[in-house]
Write a structure and sequence with these properties.
The complex is a heterotrimer of chains A (344), B (348) and C (529). With 344 residues, chain A is α/β, with parallel strands linked by helices. Chain A contains eleven helices and ten strands. In chain B, strands 7-8-9-3-10-11 form a six-stranded mixed β-sheet, sandwiched between helices. In chain B, α6 links the parallel β8 and β9. The chains are: A alpha/beta (344), B alpha+beta (348), C mainly alpha (529).
Chain lengths: 344, 348, 529
């Protein structure tokens, strides 16, 4: 079929590929390299790490970003499987459950950062394996075209998802991945019976499930559904694009909205422990929390003292769900089993 | 004989057919008449356009000029081409073109499906074909597991299954030899029927004699000559045709008053022509004799069956002859001519 | 089956050993993952409970989705194939090139585009004219069939390319059929057997790709089996269960491999183009129209959605400048990965094609169907076993290794097809020349096969181009790919930037392949008879 003789360019082509393959396989890491694994969206984390790099020119910072596609499983698995031969120095997670699971798997090293002194204890590990900072909250995103702002009654609470009035109009991400599973596990920790009951009702009330929080947001923006349960950062992204949506914090009249803080931790036996500690200190500084509050995601600072732009709520102004994150992490598995049976 | 008369007797006729592939002329002004009830052999060297001829008859190609008739009905012309399936043809391709996914018996049953509606009739026909072509024991084999001869027989059985008006055989004996060849020749001769036109293609002279009733010689896209085999063989029109037909010795002779006059002898000829002409002999027409002062010199000597084929140089001519005795190259011999030559009229 | 002298020459004991070793290396990461995750006997017995009602329900959902996708892919690919047969040589090559575009765009992106378009149509007046009832189109879209339709719009080129590259029935077979058979019999007894193998391989590949689809069905409100695997995998100390959930893939792979062996039973090694005259001009014209529609749907819909968002070409240009490094890195990953797949595949299949084992294709199919993230985890584990020995740069090597493990089926398939074009007799003859196999490889095989090899590498690289699962786990620090960037942006980026990257995702391969094809003087087909 193919005429067989014209080999010269093509042999060169194959040789090039094989050669570059060999070259790519060689080359080691320099000793001044700090490697950070982060599941924080690259748009927000990149400028912050750039600042650190600028402040510490003697270090060379390498970053591995996670993808939303793998729902933070990617870096978690990477850290877990590299346990014997760690490549990373610091893990900066955009949520908390995975970090706690990594602590249990003996991947993390304890480090008490001086910069974290004014962070509330609820967001720090008792053994100093991890520290939380800037957080996202669970909210309901509402389509302004379908629900005019004059309408105040919204399903901005978990029980309201089961109300007949909102039949077919609500949606959330699949309760098996990402922050949604953390949220469900938190509710499970509170009252598993109530969670099961409400979710069953919500399902028969034709609540829609989407692959992720971003898809929930997109569905609301498109007008497929009127209300969607998602995170603050997704809503702020939509608002920045000028979409006709608004948000309401969840369960303000019940348990309060779940806060999901960023967490940072040092990796056990990492190649550059000192550089890692430096980076952790930097990440826990006011500067970073303030930057995260100013970025597109508008992460909510855990320290009231940190300056924040308009639109980012003060943490004290929101009713926050009080949870023991360690318990939540423990409950993830049974909660997942429950969710599977409800949404087969 | 006029064209119309010709068409009455012929099963397949091609008139003024031209065929080009790209810039190359494959067939030029072809006028072929294949007689019903006999086997017409298209004979010519490789690349002469023989296979193209068959493909045109089958309707797999459309001519660039001229028209083709089957049983007096026009089937192909420049702007019209009857579908191959409607022409009632059997075609044995040179490479058999057996369908790799079908067994022997399936080949026949699938082929018969569109021609014979009645299932029991079909079964009888298949049985008959399997017996006729000795395929009974091979009925459930795939083409990949058949020998060359068996494949040819299957191809032939498939072609005859449709009771074709025209049977086209493309190099039917190529790559088959030994007993299988003789067997196949018998099968091929059986394909003749009074209402069937068979056109076979070959480039081997012995196949012409083995199969043919009629002969058409095709050289470089030109139909040089056609007719009954013996007529054609004894009256080659060109030197090239004569060479193809096995003539080896050519010599310029003079024709005067109905006599052929040459160095080797005089023979009467029925021809009004007077002047120089090219005469041709077969190798066996010459007989060699040992003669140290002979006029010819032996150039080569190769054994052939019981005898030797001797290459001679005689003046500026090269001759071939058959001899019972072997000679050494370089040896001088003399020879005599025992048969009258044929006169090649086309090359006067 | 007759065995020739060359046959004995070509499968030496060493060769068999090397092949077995190669398979072991491919399996090693998975075995390692399994061993490290093995929970002990009691827990092992308990872990079979993962195959509960819900898991089976999701499995059946994925299978139905795969069936729809395969069905639609055939439906879309055949008219294009018919149109291809009716085109002139040069136009055929353009058609081939164009058909690569849908493959290079991730199905997830296509799904988003379709959702946008359908939502727009339904909300505008045109939609109400087109569909009696509002929601009819979305009802279809948000079903297994709809999801299959979208996936098929991305995957149909696989069927088309395999038909073009491998399944041309011999011209004489078709001609003989033209003389003796009705149209229907020709399709049934001559064309179908010749297409059968390619269609089966294409369906296998598409089926596997569907069984890996996780985001797209999820976007369409469907439950899928990979979700189940992924969920298990995301729970600590549940990797074992995730591996166990892959067993149906392995079982199916063996069944398919058997089917493939049967289908390839009577393949003729000579390949020729189907003649133009086989298809009536009307059929060609109709299939050209349908092909136009197919391209319209599979390229233009996502493209329109992208262009609407991108807005101006300035943004695109700026983006190419910004992502220069990432772009080249992605191209390199894709090409290097594909080379690592195709070359070993060719070496692996270098034995006589008459002997077809079931184990190897079954193994490769199973690996192909398993979620990439599991294989990547295995490779991570493997990498972790050499503490200190490996520099971080080895990340690329292990990533490429994981690509190869995951997609060796493509290399195997390419090998089988390439050797078939080289010709059985030729190889038997080559085997009689007293040359070492390496000399034979370098002097005879590679120079003769180089063009199809390059084509195979490029086609395989298209499937790596959009890979996320493996890249995310194994890419070296600071070495992510365009696909990862795209998927990230899909979740949090601005629409303009996302669309612009989508544009790059869609068109880089087409441009790149176009350049390679031009350099190679396109595929020179001989159309003599």
């Amino acid at each position: 079929m193919f005429s067989l003789y014209r080999p010269k360019n093509s042999i060169g082509f194959i040789v090039c590929i094989v050669l570059s393959l060999v070259i790519a396989g060689c080359g080691g890491a320099p000793s001044n390299q700090v490697t950070i694994y982060t599941s924080v969206d690259r748009d927000y984390s990149e400028p912050i790490i750039a600042v650190f790099q600028k402040n510490n020119p003697e270090l060379s910072v390498k970053v591995v970003y996670d993808s939303e596609l793998t729902k933070t499983t990617g870096l978690y698995q990477r850290l877990l499987q590299e346990k014997q031969n760690p490549q990373a120095d610091v893990f900066w997670n955009n949520e908390i459950v995975r970090t706690i699971q990594l602590k249990k798997a003996d991947v993390l090293a304890p480090y008490k950062s001086a910069a974290a002194g004014d962070i509330p204890d609820a967001y720090k590990d008792a053994d100093s394996y991890w520290t939380g900072f800037s957080a996202r909250a669970r909210v309901m995103i509402i389509n302004n075209d379908l629900v005019p702002e004059t309408v105040t009654e919204t399903p901005a609470s978990i029980p309201a998802l089961a109300v007949e009035k909102f039949r077919g109009k609500t949606g959330m991400a699949k309760p098996e991945f990402g922050t949604t599973v953390t949220h469900m596990a938190a509710l499970y920790t509170y009252n598993k019976g109530a969670l099961g009951f409400t979710m069953n009702r919500a399902k028969s009330n034709q609540m829609k499930l989407y692959p992720g929080n971003a898809s929930v947001r997109d569905a609301v923006v498109r007008g497929d559904i009127a209300y969607g349960m998602t995170d603050t950062d997704d809503v702020f992204a939509a608002l920045d694009e000028g979409k006709a949506v608004r948000m309401a914090f969840l369960d303000q009249k019940q348990n309060g909205a779940l806060l999901i803080p960023n967490t940072v931790a040092l990796i056990k036996n990492s190649p550059n422990q000192d550089g890692g500690e430096k980076l952790v200190d930097f990440l826990l500084s006011h500067e970073v929390e303030s930057k995260l509050a100013q970025c597109r995601a508008r992460q909510i600072p855990l320290r009231p003292a940190v300056s924040r732009p308009d639109g980012v709520p003060d943490i004290s102004s929101i009713k926050i769900m009080e949870v023991d994150y360690n318990k939540v992490a423990e409950n993830v598995e049974p909660c997942l089993e429950l969710m599977r049976t409800i949404f087969p | 004989m006029t064209d119309t008369n010709m068409a009455v007797q012929t099963g397949v006729s091609m008139r003024n057919v031209m065929f080009k592939r790209g810039e190359r002329d494959i067939l030029r002004q072809m006028d072929l008449y294949a007689t019903m009830g006999g086997i017409t052999v298209l004979f010519g060297p490789s690349g002469a356009g023989k296979t193209t001829c068959l493909r045109l008859i089958a309707g797999l190609e459309t001519p660039d000029a001229g028209c083709i008739f089957i049983n007096r009905k026009e089937v192909s012309s420049v702007d019209k081409c009857q579908h191959p399936a409607k022409r009632r043809i059997g075609y044995c391709f040179q490479d058999d073109a057996l369908w790799p996914a079908l067994t022997v018996v399936k080949h026949l049953s699938v082929t018969l499906k569109s021609y014979m509606v009645d299932a029991s009739q079909r079964r009888m026909k298949i049985d008959d074909l399997l017996h006729r072509f000795g395929l009974v024991d091979l009925a459930n084999r795939y083409p990949a597991n058949l020998s060359g001869g068996e494949r040819k027989r299957l191809a032939l059985a498939r072609a005859l299954a449709v009771e074709p008006d025209v049977l086209l055989l493309d190099e039917p004996l190529s790559s088959i030899d030994g007993p299988a060849r003789n067997e196949l020749i018998t099968y091929l001769r059986q394909c003749k029927a009074s209402n069937r036109t068979v056109v076979a293609v070959t480039h081997q002279l012995d196949e012409v004699y083995a199969l043919g009733d009629y002969l058409a010689i095709l050289i470089e896209g030109n139909l040089v000559q056609q007719g009954l085999i013996r007529d054609v063989v004894l009256n080659p029109q060109t030197r090239q045709a004569a060479l193809l037909l096995g003539y080896r010795n050519f010599f310029l002779v003079k024709i005067e008053n109905g006599m052929i006059i040459s160095e080797f002898g005089r023979w009467p000829v029925e021809d009004d022509y007077n002047g120089l002409a090219l005469a041709a002999w077969f190798a066996e027409d010459f007989v060699a004799a040992s003669d140290a002062d002979g006029p010819a010199q032996v150039e080569s000597c190769r054994p052939e069956t019981r005898r030797y084929r001797i290459g001679l140089s005689y003046g500026n001519n090269l001759f071939e002859l058959l001899s019972d005795a072997a000679f050494q190259p370089g040896e001088k011999i003399s020879f005599r001519v025992e048969q009258r030559p044929v006169i090649i009229k086309g090359d006067r | 089956m007759s065995r020739t002298y060359a046959h004995y020459l070509s499968i030496s004991r060493t060769g068999a050993l090397v092949r077995a070793l190669f398979c072991m290396i491919l399996l090693l990461p998975i075995i390692l993952l399994g061993v490290s995750a093995y929970p002990g006997w009691d827990a092992f017995l308990m872990s079979w409970q993962v195959f509960d009602r819900i898991a089976l329900y999701r499995l059946s959902g994925s299978i139905i989705l795969a069936c729809w996708t395969i069905f639609f892919s055939w439906l879309l690919a055949f008219p294009v194939y018919a149109a291809y047969l009716g085109l002139s040589k040069r136009r055929r090559q353009w058609l081939l090139l164009l058909s690569l575009a849908p493959l290079s765009y991730p199905p997830f992106g296509a799904a988003s585009a379709w959702m946008t378009v359908i939502s727009y149509i339904e909300q505008s007046g045109a939609g109400r004219l087109l569909f009696e009832k509002r929601g009819m189109a979305s009802q279809f879209l948000y079903s297994q069939a709809g999801c299959g339709w979208i996936l098929a719009l991305c995957f149909w080129p696989i069927v088309f390319l395999l038909l073009v590259l491998s399944a041309q029935p011999m011209r004489r077979h078709v001609e003989a059929a033209q003389i003796y058979l009705s149209r229907w019999s020709m399709v049934r007894y001559v064309l179908w057997p010749a297409w059968r193998e390619s269609l089966l391989i294409a369906s296998m590949v598409i089926g596997c790709l569907c069984m890996l689809q996780f985001e797209t069905p999820s976007l369409m409100q469907l439950r899928s089996y990979p979700e189940e695997i992924f969920m298990r995998f995301s729970i600590p100390e549940n990797e074992w269960k995730a591996l166990l959930l892959c067993l149906p893939y392995v079982a199916t792979a063996f069944v398919l491999a058997f089917a493939l062996r049967r289908a390839g039973r009577c393949i003729d090694s000579r390949v020729t183009d189907l003649p133009f005259s086989t298809l009536p001009p009307l059929v060609v014209r109709i299939s050209l129209c349908i092909s136009f529609m197919v391209f319209l749907l599979s390229i233009l819909i996502p493209l329109t959605a992208l262009i609407l968002y991108v807005g101006s070409s300035g943004i695109l240009f700026q983006l190419i400048v910004d992502h220069n490094g990432r772009l080249w890195r992605s191209v390199f990953y894709a090409l290097a990965g594909a080379t690592l797949i195709v070359l070993p595949g060719i070496l692996y299949t270098s034995k006589s094609s008459r002997v077809r084992s079931v184990a190897a294709p079954a193994l490769f199919t199973a690996l192909f169907a398993c979620p990439g993230i599991l294989i990547a985890a295995g490779w991570l584990r493997l990498r972790g076993y050499w503490p200190g020995m490996l520099p971080p740069g080895v990340g690329v090597a292990s990533m490429l290794g994981a690509y190869a493990t995951h997609r060796m089926l493509l290399g195997y398939g390419a090998g089988v097809l390439l050797w078939r074009t080289y010709g059985e007799r030729q190889r038997e003859f080559d085997a009689l020349i007293p040359l070492s196999w390496i000399t034979r490889l370098l002097r005879l095989y590679i120079p003769s096969l180089v063009r199809p090899v390059v084509v195979a590498i490029i086609l395989t690289s298209l499937l790596i181009w959009g890979d996320v699962a493996i890249t995310i786990l194994l890419h070296p620090p600071g070495g992510d790919s365009l696909a990862i960037e795209y998927f990230n942006l899909l979740h949090y980026g601005s629409e303009t930037r996302t669309a612009a990257i989508g544009f790059l995702m869609l068109f880089t391969p087409v441009v790149f392949i176009g350049i390679v094809f031009l350099l190679m003087g396109f595929g020179g087909y001989n159309q003599n008879d």
